[in-house]
Structure formats: structure tokens, C-alpha cells
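Quick log. Single chain, no ligands specified.
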Amino acid sequence: MRHDHELYPPGLNALGCDPRRLVVAECSSEADALWAAEESLRSGAVGAVVLEGERSLDLTAARRLQLAAEEGGALGLMVSVGHEALFPAASTRWRFEPLEGRRFELKMTRNRNGLSGAWRVKRDETAYCLSLAEKPRHGPDHPAHAGLA
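-> predicted structure:
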């Protein structure tokens, strides 16, 4: 993502994503963007849909996207750049923060099905994956969770 919120093809290549395999819909209204995302998620023809949001979705719109993703077997990602937005129907909510080098801190701030936590990861450019950069600060082995089974 560039500062103007446009996709950056060399960055996508570095992550192992061929930009030629992407379909990008630039919509003139929020209603059109939600329609395009919902139809794409429901179609069964895509693996994932990324929707950038400037503000929170209402519960009805969020639920429609969730149901469409379940029906089509696709991953639906809502991205909010530069501000904390709330997506009420989200199964999980994540915050990504850059660290030095090729490292990031991933914070799961909401998990409908269990515990949340934070992980420091590093990017492996040859394997196109993330791996733990250090032992998790939150999780089953963290003192805050001692005695939980």
C-alpha cells in the first residue's frame, strides 16, 4: 500500500502475490464498493476480497459481507488505514504495527472464539511467509494465563 492507498505492484511481488492475478475495483461510492465486495465474496470465484474502509460499517452491511464470505468460501478482509475503525461482525480484529527491519507486531484485539494476544513476527522473503521473531508475549505460556486449561 502506498501513501495514496493505491496498491504497489513491486510490494505485492515481494510478498509472493502476482499483481496480474488481481482484480481491482475502484468504486465511486461506498454502496458500490460494498456491492462489489459482497458479490465477489459470494461468487466462489475468488480466494479473498480486501475492502478498504474509511469508517465503520453498520451491522447489517458487515453481516451481509460475513454471510457472503461464508457462502462463497472466501476470506473477507476489511482494512482501515491510519485510524481505529470498528467492524461489528468481524470474527477477529487485528492491528499491525511496523518494527525495525522486516519485523512487525501483530495484535489480535478481538477474537470471537477465544483469547487475543500479540506476536512479533519477521518476514521471510524467500518463503513468502511470516515466522515468530521472538517468544509470544501473550499466550498459554504467559504468566497471565497460568493455571488456565
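The chain has two domains: 1-83, 91-144.
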